Amino acid sequence: MDDAGTTPSRSFGLAPREIRPGVRVCADAAEVARAAARLFVEWAWQFIAREKSFCVALSGGNTPREMYRLLGTPEFRAQVDWAKVHLFWSDERAVAPDHSESNYGMARHELLLRVPIPPGNVHRMEAERPNLGRAAQEYEDILRRHLRLDSNGLPRLHVILLGMGADGHTASLFPGSRQLRDTLRWVSTPVHPKFHSRRMTLTLPVLNAAHQVLFLVTGGDKAQALRDVLEGRSDPPLPAQLVKVPHGQRMFLVDQAAVALLSRAAASRPAKSRRPGEEKLGESR
Questions:
Q1: pLDDT tens-digit readout, 169-184
Q2: Domains of the chain
């Protein structure tokens, strides 16, 4: 609502094309970022109206960077009641918050300094701490304090933003990692298999407990992994393939380059029609 108590305009541009349920294709990375910003605003309205807050886990990456930049512009900034938004992170590198590789630092520069969000609503992963295991345990406590738990006792974020690497990793969950089998911890501290650097990450049980998981995938280098994830071609499954969100909704916003290898039959299949009473795409379950 704006200061006059009226609902702001939702004119954000053309909607992406849905090629199958939960997979929306945009022309390029810039359009993916714009569509993601639009969904952020729509979901913020929905969850704040229903639950009086909007709890989102942010991710790093170039496409989220542009999305955060858009959310900080006048076009989008006024559409969100930032006092009721709580921000978390899906993963973080073991670097200081002002480091160029910090996911928090990127979000702070592009978004947090541009919107009126209370500092107490920003819950970053303190992955720069010497005792990373202790920091992960304390982040679990933060999740427990601020989020509702589902019937399985897991924290339920309203929205989790995720990217995907060319190897199919998501957050800091890497192919073959023991963290993929972790069903007890909510936050883990894996080691990057190539760079041997420590990370902090939400685990699969937390990702799968969300109301909404939104993957932002752009670039031709992701095309093979995206096809494997969407068509179940990888054995063992890739990390992104294991994010299924059984009691919520998983959505992919992708560009044309990223879907270049999807089978023609699957890509051309019309989206499943919505029966009366079913949710609209983009609505939470």
A1: 999 999 988 888 888 9
A2: 17-267 (3.40.50.1360)
